[in-house]
Amino acid sequence: MNAKPKIDRRGFLARGLAVAVASLLGGCDSELSDQPWVKRILDSAESLTRVAQRKLVSPTALAREYSEAERLDRRGR
Amino acid sequence: MTNADSPNEKREVVYRHSLPVRVTHWVNVVALLVLLMSGFQIFNAHPALYLGSKSNFDDPVMAMRPMKHGEEILGVTTIAGWDIDTTNLFGLAYAPDGDYEIRGFPWSVTLPGHRDLSTGRRWHFFFAWLFVMNGLVYLIYSLASGHLSKDLAPSRSELKHIGTSTWEHLRLRFPKGEEAKRYNVLQKLAYLIVVLVLLPLMLATGLAMSPGMDAGYPFLLEIFGGRQSARTVHFIAASGIVVFVVVHLVMVLISGVWNNLRSMITGRYAIKLPETQS
Fold it and tell me: What angle do CA B168, B162, B247 make, to 5 degrees?
Protein backbone atom coordinates (compact mmCIF):
# COMPACT_ATOMS: atom_id res chain seq x y z
CA MET A 1 0.00 0.00 0.00
CA ASN A 2 1.27 3.45 -0.82
CA ALA A 3 0.45 6.72 0.91
CA LYS A 4 -2.76 7.57 -0.93
CA PRO A 5 -5.42 5.51 0.84
CA LYS A 6 -3.90 6.55 4.15
CA ILE A 7 -4.64 10.21 3.56
CA ASP A 8 -8.19 9.30 2.60
CA ARG A 9 -8.63 7.40 5.79
CA ARG A 10 -7.27 10.31 7.82
CA GLY A 11 -9.59 12.69 6.05
CA PHE A 12 -12.47 10.34 6.68
CA LEU A 13 -11.65 10.08 10.37
CA ALA A 14 -11.22 13.82 10.74
CA ARG A 15 -14.53 14.50 9.01
CA GLY A 16 -16.30 11.84 11.05
CA LEU A 17 -14.95 13.33 14.25
CA ALA A 18 -15.98 16.84 13.21
CA VAL A 19 -19.51 15.66 12.38
CA ALA A 20 -19.79 13.80 15.69
CA VAL A 21 -18.64 16.80 17.73
CA ALA A 22 -20.85 19.22 15.77
CA SER A 23 -23.95 17.08 16.14
CA LEU A 24 -23.26 16.57 19.82
CA LEU A 25 -22.87 20.29 20.51
CA GLY A 26 -25.67 21.22 18.12
CA GLY A 27 -27.89 18.57 19.67
CA CYS A 28 -27.41 19.96 23.15
CA ASP A 29 -28.03 23.45 21.84
CA SER A 30 -31.31 22.64 20.13
CA GLU A 31 -32.64 21.05 23.29
CA LEU A 32 -32.12 17.39 22.61
CA SER A 33 -33.79 16.84 25.98
CA ASP A 34 -37.13 18.09 24.62
CA GLN A 35 -37.35 15.58 21.78
CA PRO A 36 -40.06 12.94 22.47
CA TRP A 37 -37.84 10.05 21.36
CA VAL A 38 -35.05 11.20 23.70
CA LYS A 39 -37.52 11.45 26.57
CA ARG A 40 -38.74 7.92 25.82
CA ILE A 41 -35.22 6.53 25.88
CA LEU A 42 -34.30 8.35 29.09
CA ASP A 43 -37.57 7.23 30.72
CA SER A 44 -36.73 3.59 30.08
CA ALA A 45 -33.95 3.85 32.66
CA GLU A 46 -36.36 5.29 35.24
CA SER A 47 -38.34 2.05 35.41
CA LEU A 48 -35.10 0.06 35.48
CA THR A 49 -33.98 2.14 38.47
CA ARG A 50 -37.32 1.62 40.20
CA VAL A 51 -37.36 -2.15 39.66
CA ALA A 52 -33.72 -2.47 40.75
CA GLN A 53 -34.36 -0.51 43.92
CA ARG A 54 -37.47 -2.59 44.74
CA LYS A 55 -35.36 -5.74 44.32
CA LEU A 56 -32.34 -4.48 46.22
CA VAL A 57 -33.98 -2.70 49.14
CA SER A 58 -36.38 -4.43 51.52
CA PRO A 59 -39.76 -2.67 51.76
CA THR A 60 -39.36 -2.59 55.54
CA ALA A 61 -35.98 -0.83 55.49
CA LEU A 62 -36.22 2.50 57.27
CA ALA A 63 -34.18 5.62 56.81
CA ARG A 64 -31.52 6.27 59.38
CA GLU A 65 -32.57 8.60 62.21
CA TYR A 66 -30.52 11.48 63.48
CA SER A 67 -30.53 12.89 67.01
CA GLU A 68 -31.43 16.51 67.73
CA ALA A 69 -27.74 17.34 68.11
CA GLU A 70 -26.97 16.03 64.63
CA ARG A 71 -29.54 18.25 62.94
CA LEU A 72 -29.42 21.74 61.55
CA ASP A 73 -32.17 24.31 61.79
CA ARG A 74 -34.26 25.20 58.77
CA ARG A 75 -31.79 27.79 57.57
CA GLY A 76 -29.02 25.22 57.57
CA ARG A 77 -27.19 26.48 60.65
CA MET B 1 9.74 12.92 15.30
CA THR B 2 12.75 13.60 13.05
CA ASN B 3 12.49 10.53 10.89
CA ALA B 4 8.92 9.58 11.62
CA ASP B 5 8.01 9.64 7.95
CA SER B 6 11.28 8.51 6.46
CA PRO B 7 10.58 5.67 4.04
CA ASN B 8 13.49 3.60 5.36
CA GLU B 9 12.15 3.38 8.86
CA LYS B 10 11.00 -0.07 9.79
CA ARG B 11 7.51 -0.42 11.15
CA GLU B 12 5.65 -3.38 12.49
CA VAL B 13 1.90 -3.44 12.87
CA VAL B 14 0.63 -5.28 15.95
CA TYR B 15 -2.86 -6.08 17.16
CA ARG B 16 -3.02 -3.99 20.29
CA HIS B 17 -6.59 -3.60 21.54
CA SER B 18 -9.10 -6.45 21.56
CA LEU B 19 -12.67 -5.83 20.40
CA PRO B 20 -14.24 -5.77 23.91
CA VAL B 21 -11.66 -3.21 25.06
CA ARG B 22 -12.30 -0.99 22.02
CA VAL B 23 -16.09 -1.16 22.30
CA THR B 24 -16.20 -0.57 26.07
CA HIS B 25 -13.68 2.27 25.68
CA TRP B 26 -15.92 4.24 23.30
CA VAL B 27 -19.13 3.47 25.20
CA ASN B 28 -17.34 4.79 28.27
CA VAL B 29 -16.32 7.98 26.43
CA VAL B 30 -19.97 8.74 25.63
CA ALA B 31 -21.29 7.68 29.05
CA LEU B 32 -18.69 9.65 31.03
CA LEU B 33 -19.18 12.79 28.92
CA VAL B 34 -22.95 12.76 29.47
CA LEU B 35 -22.51 11.87 33.15
CA LEU B 36 -20.11 14.77 33.62
CA MET B 37 -22.36 17.32 31.90
CA SER B 38 -25.58 16.17 33.58
CA GLY B 39 -23.58 15.97 36.83
CA PHE B 40 -22.77 19.68 36.48
CA GLN B 41 -26.51 20.30 36.06
CA ILE B 42 -27.29 18.37 39.26
CA PHE B 43 -24.47 20.10 41.13
CA ASN B 44 -25.85 23.47 40.02
CA ALA B 45 -29.10 22.81 41.91
CA HIS B 46 -27.05 23.53 45.03
CA PRO B 47 -23.52 24.54 44.02
CA ALA B 48 -21.78 23.78 47.32
CA LEU B 49 -20.17 20.75 48.96
CA TYR B 50 -20.00 19.74 52.61
CA LEU B 51 -18.45 17.11 54.84
CA GLY B 52 -20.34 14.79 57.17
CA SER B 53 -24.06 14.18 57.14
CA LYS B 54 -25.37 17.73 57.21
CA SER B 55 -25.24 20.73 54.90
CA ASN B 56 -23.85 23.45 57.13
CA PHE B 57 -24.49 26.41 54.85
CA ASP B 58 -22.00 28.61 56.72
CA ASP B 59 -19.11 26.23 56.29
CA PRO B 60 -18.96 24.52 52.88
CA VAL B 61 -15.72 22.82 51.78
CA MET B 62 -16.43 24.13 48.31
CA ALA B 63 -18.95 26.59 46.95
CA MET B 64 -19.62 28.58 43.80
CA ARG B 65 -21.60 31.73 44.56
CA PRO B 66 -22.03 35.43 43.80
CA MET B 67 -20.43 37.83 46.28
CA LYS B 68 -20.56 41.58 46.70
CA HIS B 69 -17.22 43.26 46.23
CA GLY B 70 -17.70 47.00 46.68
CA GLU B 71 -20.07 48.09 43.93
CA GLU B 72 -19.55 44.97 41.85
CA ILE B 73 -20.89 41.47 42.14
CA LEU B 74 -18.32 38.77 41.49
CA GLY B 75 -18.60 35.04 40.92
CA VAL B 76 -16.54 33.46 43.68
CA THR B 77 -15.42 29.87 44.10
CA THR B 78 -14.51 29.02 47.67
CA ILE B 79 -12.28 25.99 48.20
CA ALA B 80 -11.37 25.08 51.78
CA GLY B 81 -11.70 28.68 52.94
CA TRP B 82 -9.94 30.25 49.96
CA ASP B 83 -11.97 32.64 47.82
CA ILE B 84 -11.06 32.63 44.14
CA ASP B 85 -12.55 35.13 41.69
CA THR B 86 -14.17 33.02 38.98
CA THR B 87 -16.53 35.64 37.51
CA ASN B 88 -17.74 34.56 34.03
CA LEU B 89 -17.09 30.91 34.75
CA PHE B 90 -18.37 29.74 38.14
CA GLY B 91 -20.76 31.33 40.64
CA LEU B 92 -21.61 34.18 38.29
CA ALA B 93 -21.45 32.58 34.89
CA TYR B 94 -21.81 33.91 31.36
CA ALA B 95 -25.26 33.38 29.91
CA PRO B 96 -26.19 32.47 26.31
CA ASP B 97 -27.50 36.02 25.72
CA GLY B 98 -24.16 37.55 26.71
CA ASP B 99 -25.39 38.55 30.16
CA TYR B 100 -24.49 36.97 33.49
CA GLU B 101 -26.48 34.53 35.56
CA ILE B 102 -26.12 33.21 39.07
CA ARG B 103 -25.23 29.54 38.71
CA GLY B 104 -22.38 27.15 39.46
CA PHE B 105 -21.17 25.86 36.10
CA PRO B 106 -22.06 27.83 32.94
CA TRP B 107 -24.81 26.70 30.54
CA SER B 108 -22.34 25.51 27.89
CA VAL B 109 -21.08 22.57 29.97
CA THR B 110 -24.35 21.44 31.57
CA LEU B 111 -26.95 19.04 30.21
CA PRO B 112 -29.49 20.38 29.51
CA GLY B 113 -28.05 23.86 28.98
CA HIS B 114 -30.76 25.68 30.86
CA ARG B 115 -31.49 25.04 34.50
CA ASP B 116 -33.48 21.81 34.80
CA LEU B 117 -32.61 19.46 37.64
CA SER B 118 -35.12 16.71 36.85
CA THR B 119 -34.05 16.38 33.21
CA GLY B 120 -30.41 16.46 34.31
CA ARG B 121 -31.14 13.56 36.67
CA ARG B 122 -32.82 11.57 33.90
CA TRP B 123 -29.78 11.91 31.68
CA HIS B 124 -27.53 11.07 34.63
CA PHE B 125 -29.40 7.91 35.62
CA PHE B 126 -29.79 6.58 32.08
CA PHE B 127 -26.09 6.95 31.38
CA ALA B 128 -25.21 5.70 34.87
CA TRP B 129 -26.88 2.41 33.92
CA LEU B 130 -25.02 2.35 30.61
CA PHE B 131 -21.77 3.09 32.50
CA VAL B 132 -22.39 0.31 35.06
CA MET B 133 -23.30 -2.32 32.46
CA ASN B 134 -20.39 -1.32 30.25
CA GLY B 135 -18.08 -1.44 33.28
CA LEU B 136 -19.30 -4.92 34.20
CA VAL B 137 -18.70 -6.19 30.67
CA TYR B 138 -15.20 -4.69 30.76
CA LEU B 139 -14.33 -6.11 34.19
CA ILE B 140 -15.63 -9.60 33.45
CA TYR B 141 -13.81 -9.64 30.10
CA SER B 142 -10.60 -8.27 31.64
CA LEU B 143 -10.55 -10.83 34.42
CA ALA B 144 -11.52 -13.78 32.22
CA SER B 145 -9.14 -12.96 29.35
CA GLY B 146 -6.21 -12.02 31.56
CA HIS B 147 -6.18 -8.45 30.18
CA LEU B 148 -5.97 -7.16 33.74
CA SER B 149 -3.08 -9.37 34.83
CA LYS B 150 -1.20 -9.54 31.51
CA ASP B 151 -1.54 -6.00 30.17
CA LEU B 152 -2.33 -3.78 33.15
CA ALA B 153 -0.66 -5.19 36.27
CA PRO B 154 2.87 -3.75 36.49
CA SER B 155 5.70 -6.18 37.08
CA ARG B 156 8.04 -5.94 40.05
CA SER B 157 10.94 -4.75 37.90
CA GLU B 158 8.76 -2.13 36.20
CA LEU B 159 7.85 -0.73 39.61
CA LYS B 160 11.53 -0.74 40.59
CA HIS B 161 12.44 1.36 37.56
CA ILE B 162 9.50 3.71 37.82
CA GLY B 163 11.83 6.67 38.37
CA THR B 164 13.62 6.13 35.05
CA SER B 165 10.32 5.60 33.25
CA THR B 166 8.90 8.80 34.71
CA TRP B 167 11.98 10.75 33.63
CA GLU B 168 11.79 9.35 30.08
CA HIS B 169 8.09 10.12 30.01
CA LEU B 170 8.55 13.71 31.18
CA ARG B 171 11.03 14.29 28.36
CA LEU B 172 8.40 12.84 26.01
CA ARG B 173 10.62 9.99 24.93
CA PHE B 174 8.36 7.13 24.06
CA PRO B 175 9.54 3.55 23.84
CA LYS B 176 10.22 1.91 20.49
CA GLY B 177 10.34 -1.66 19.30
CA GLU B 178 9.58 -4.51 21.66
CA GLU B 179 8.89 -2.20 24.60
CA ALA B 180 6.27 -0.24 22.68
CA LYS B 181 4.14 -3.37 22.44
CA ARG B 182 3.23 -3.08 26.08
CA TYR B 183 1.87 -0.24 28.16
CA ASN B 184 4.63 1.43 30.14
CA VAL B 185 4.48 1.41 33.92
CA LEU B 186 2.94 4.89 34.25
CA GLN B 187 0.20 4.03 31.78
CA LYS B 188 -0.49 0.80 33.63
CA LEU B 189 -0.79 2.57 36.98
CA ALA B 190 -2.94 5.38 35.57
CA TYR B 191 -5.33 2.95 33.87
CA LEU B 192 -5.50 0.74 36.97
CA ILE B 193 -6.29 3.70 39.23
CA VAL B 194 -9.07 4.83 36.90
CA VAL B 195 -10.53 1.37 36.29
CA LEU B 196 -10.25 -0.08 39.79
CA VAL B 197 -10.40 3.01 42.03
CA LEU B 198 -11.96 6.13 40.50
CA LEU B 199 -14.74 4.57 38.43
CA PRO B 200 -15.94 2.16 41.16
CA LEU B 201 -15.71 5.06 43.63
CA MET B 202 -18.05 7.09 41.42
CA LEU B 203 -20.59 4.27 41.54
CA ALA B 204 -20.27 3.72 45.32
CA THR B 205 -20.56 7.43 46.19
CA GLY B 206 -23.42 7.77 43.71
CA LEU B 207 -25.31 4.96 45.44
CA ALA B 208 -24.50 6.47 48.85
CA MET B 209 -26.37 9.63 47.81
CA SER B 210 -29.59 7.66 47.26
CA PRO B 211 -31.91 7.83 50.30
CA GLY B 212 -33.43 4.47 49.31
CA MET B 213 -30.09 2.70 49.04
CA ASP B 214 -28.98 4.27 52.36
CA ALA B 215 -32.04 2.81 54.09
CA GLY B 216 -31.32 -0.66 52.68
CA TYR B 217 -27.56 -0.50 53.04
CA PRO B 218 -26.64 1.86 55.93
CA PHE B 219 -22.96 0.93 55.57
CA LEU B 220 -22.89 3.16 52.48
CA LEU B 221 -23.22 6.11 54.86
CA GLU B 222 -20.66 4.67 57.28
CA ILE B 223 -18.01 4.21 54.58
CA PHE B 224 -18.12 7.81 53.41
CA GLY B 225 -19.16 9.43 56.69
CA GLY B 226 -22.51 10.78 55.57
CA ARG B 227 -24.35 11.69 52.42
CA GLN B 228 -22.72 15.12 52.15
CA SER B 229 -19.24 13.60 52.32
CA ALA B 230 -20.30 11.07 49.68
CA ARG B 231 -21.34 13.97 47.43
CA THR B 232 -17.98 15.67 47.99
CA VAL B 233 -16.05 12.45 47.24
CA HIS B 234 -18.22 11.99 44.13
CA PHE B 235 -17.14 15.44 42.97
CA ILE B 236 -13.45 14.87 43.79
CA ALA B 237 -13.37 11.48 42.04
CA ALA B 238 -15.07 13.03 39.00
CA SER B 239 -12.40 15.76 39.01
CA GLY B 240 -9.76 13.02 39.12
CA ILE B 241 -11.29 11.40 36.03
CA VAL B 242 -11.33 14.77 34.24
CA VAL B 243 -7.63 15.25 35.05
CA PHE B 244 -6.90 11.75 33.77
CA VAL B 245 -8.81 12.41 30.53
CA VAL B 246 -6.93 15.67 29.92
CA VAL B 247 -3.54 14.00 30.41
CA HIS B 248 -4.70 10.97 28.39
CA LEU B 249 -5.75 13.20 25.47
CA VAL B 250 -2.48 15.15 25.55
CA MET B 251 -0.50 11.89 25.50
CA VAL B 252 -2.65 10.52 22.67
CA LEU B 253 -2.04 13.70 20.67
CA ILE B 254 1.73 13.86 21.13
CA SER B 255 2.54 10.16 20.83
CA GLY B 256 1.11 9.71 17.33
CA VAL B 257 -2.53 10.68 17.22
CA TRP B 258 -3.57 8.76 14.08
CA ASN B 259 -1.78 5.61 15.13
CA ASN B 260 -3.39 5.81 18.56
CA LEU B 261 -6.87 6.52 17.21
CA ARG B 262 -6.61 3.73 14.66
CA SER B 263 -5.52 1.29 17.34
CA MET B 264 -8.59 2.11 19.43
CA ILE B 265 -10.86 1.70 16.36
CA THR B 266 -9.39 -1.21 14.40
CA GLY B 267 -7.09 -2.60 17.06
CA ARG B 268 -4.00 -2.24 14.86
CA TYR B 269 -1.06 -0.26 16.15
CA ALA B 270 2.15 0.52 14.26
CA ILE B 271 5.40 0.23 16.13
CA LYS B 272 8.63 1.91 15.08
CA LEU B 273 11.45 -0.56 15.14
CA PRO B 274 14.79 0.61 16.45
CA GLU B 275 17.12 1.52 13.58
CA THR B 276 19.55 -1.14 12.48
CA GLN B 277 22.97 -0.64 10.88
CA SER B 278 21.87 -1.48 7.33
Answer: 60
Give which of A35, A5, A51, A13 is closest to B266, Cα–Cα. A13
CB burial of residue B119 (10 Å; 0-12, 13-18, 19+)? buried
Which whole number is the average pLDDT over B99-124?
93
A33 touches chain B (CB under 8 A): yes
Alpha helices per DSSP H over chain B: 19-44, 117-145, 147, 156-160, 162-170, 185-192, 199-208, 211-216, 219-224, 227-254, 257-265
Residue of B38, B59, B119 to mutate, testing the A interface (most A Cβ within 10 Å of its Cβ): B119
What's the pLDDT band for A23 if we cut at 50, 70, 90?
low
Put simply, the answer to whether A49 touches B129 (Cβ < 8 Å) is yes
C-alpha separations of B166 from B163, B224, B256, B266 in Å:
5, 33, 19, 29
Q: What is the pLDDT, as a whole number, of residue A7?
A: 54
ipTM: 0.78
Distance in angstroms (rounded) separating the CA atoms of residues B193 and B170 = 20
User: What 3-state DSSP class applies to B76?
Assistant: strand
Do B35 and B124 form a contact (C-beta atoms < 8 A)?
yes
DSSP 8-state secondary structure symbol assigned to residue B96 = T
What confidence tens digit (pLDDT) does each residue in B125-176 have? Answer: 999 999 999 999 999 999 999 999 999 999 999 999 999 989 988 888 888 8
Q: Does B119 touch chain A (CB under 8 A)?
A: yes
